Each structure stands twice: as C-alpha cells, then as structure tokens.
Amino acid sequence: MFREDWEKLILDLVRSGILKSPRVIRAMRLVPRSLFLPEDQKPYAAIDTPLPIGWGQTVSAPQDQPLRAGLAIHGFNNE
Fold it and tell me: Which pTM does this prediction carry?
C-alpha cells in the first residue's frame, strides 16, 4: 500500500506543477521518504506535510523537496 500512496503523491506533485524534473522524479521514486522517518511516522510518509522525526525536528513536506533536490542535482543555474 505504501508504494501506491507514494506514487500517487508524486503524480499529484507532477500534476500540480511542483515536481517537474525527470531526474528529481526518479530520485523521489528511488529514495522514498519513509527511509527517513521513525517507525511510528512511516504510515504517514505519503502525506504532504512535515512529520516529526524526534528531538524537536521535522522532515519537510514532500512538496518542499523538489526544489532542494533540483538544486542538488542540477545546480543553481538549471531547472
């Protein structure tokens, strides 16, 4: 079920224009958010909201990741 929910979220981000880069889309498919969450938060991995990871910290909402991943993959001068 998780894989289907994660894929649906990715497609929603593509449809909304937030997620555009094929390389970032591929990265999000290969490295699911659940890998970065504590066990009690994994069921919520495909919800587009920040989630607590402990020690007063959160993991960003998936809609915030395309910009960061795009910068990491493409640099500042490319889309």
Answer: 0.78
